[in-house]
Amino acid sequence: MSALPDISGFRHVPSRHWGRWLAVAVILVLLALLVRAFAQGQIEWDYVGRFLTAPAILQGLVNTIWMSIAAMALGIALGVGTAIMRMSPNPVLQGVAMGYTWLFRGTPVILQLLLWFNLALVFPRLGFGDWSFRTVDVVTPALAALLGLGINQGAYTSEVVRGGMLSVDTGQYEAAKAIGMTRLRALRRIVFPQAMRVIIPPLGNEFIGMVKLTSLASVIQFAEILHNAQNIYYANSRVIELLIVAGIWYLVVVSVLTPAQMLLERRFSRGAGGGR
Amino acid sequence: MSPLVSIVNVEKHFGSFHALKGVSLDVKAGEVLCIIGASGSGKTTLLRCVNQLVEPDAGAIWIDGELTGFRIQGQSLHKLPEAEIARQRLATGMVFQRFNLFPHMTALENIMEGPVQVQRRPKREVEAEARALLARVGLEAKADSYPANLSGGQQQRVAIARALCMRPKLMLFDEPTSALDPELVGDVLAAMKELARSGMTMIVVTHELGFAREVADRVVFMDHGAIVESGPADAVLGNPREARTQAFLSAVLS
């Protein structure tokens, strides 16, 4: 066998990633061209700055945020309830859950929003006997948007929640039963805390989707941010500037949600994996 | 004295598979009974019928004089509601082959979950008992560890403590050492032997013939959904009468 060279004192040289430097250069050039195009295009950027904090825009932002939260809360409540019904041994409950999911996943959200908003055409008055109201007074754009978005969301969330429940080992249900738990208590104490790890990432996705989905409620006159931006540009014709204003706010809201999701995920990763 | 557990003519089908063919068996208070047999012989199904994780198609099981799963009214049997079945399960503690600890809870929280949440016992008293049980299975230092950070043998001993903290009248073990690495089996068997010496009534489905010979008051051999032979451990394991028992034992011991 030949003697091997002594390399013990040699220096390690990391490989040079020439491709990466080339890619960075190309991207920077393209970015510069894009910025120049928009700077020279017919956009009055000072309008964007001025309307970013206009009262109507901020009011619209507030409405977008509370509607996203309220519709998502309704969606999660319905989704959890539907998932539990779907997983129940009772065939009637299973059927109701499947029917609900089928109906609301099978029709466009915008159609559902329009139906809720026009509920007065079907039921002119709501209530019992002497205690009743005109439907148009009760079903405001906000309520119609909440029902339309929330009930639709519930149908999707139920499948996310069911997926999370199915991800928990059947041995966990058996162990919970063996210490005397009923099905509902086992779900609450044992299954859901474990399912949350699987449920949260898609649910974060759905929440981000919901923030943007609220813009559909502009068609039923709900005063969310896009609706208010449109109202302003109908008056002053600064269409692109106001759309950019709305776009910036959507990006801000979604950017805040991402770290919030990471915090939640950390909260529910108790005992998972874990090195020794 | 009437037996603690009376299993009478229990039948179970899974689809076309006849898992239990009219099995009858009594277990006295304080007795340690080991059930042996090949996989598919029905021994695990029988054990799971005792705490109603499996519902028999026919026959009945009494625990401490109480019919499980049904209420007798006149000449008919009425299925009990879920909450009543959950209450009846408190009479039995169950240890699973795959431990089934709750992974989102520490060892201590696993043990305290049932007594605090289901039995509504005071938290402080339960915690003291849970720590004592952990010490009894040799794991007092692991109270705050999550199951993912425990070895299989440690997890199974926590599972035994979890079942004991419910103060059951009867302990059921479903192949408690089958999922363990060989070097971890000894600690779990030691915990079970200690439990047997303390007078606990135990039904143990196992492949550990050494454990059965040493600890069991009685050994039952099952094959194809029926009890083939039953008697004192020395007799069944040392000098089996039935050809099928002899064949099984020679296959296991060879």
From TrEMBL, chain B:
This is Amino acid ABC transporter ATP-binding protein. The keyword Acetylation does not apply. SMART domains: AAA. GO terms for molecular function: ATP binding. Residues 5-249 form the ABC transporter domain. InterPro entries: AAA+_ATPase, ABC_ATPase_HisP-typ, ABC_transporter-like_ATP-bd, ABC_transporter-like_CS, MetN_ABC_transporter-like, P-loop_NTPase. Belongs to the ABC transporter superfamily. The lineage of its organism: Bacteria, Pseudomonadati, Pseudomonadota, Alphaproteobacteria, Acetobacterales. Keywords: ATP-binding, Nucleotide-binding, Transport.
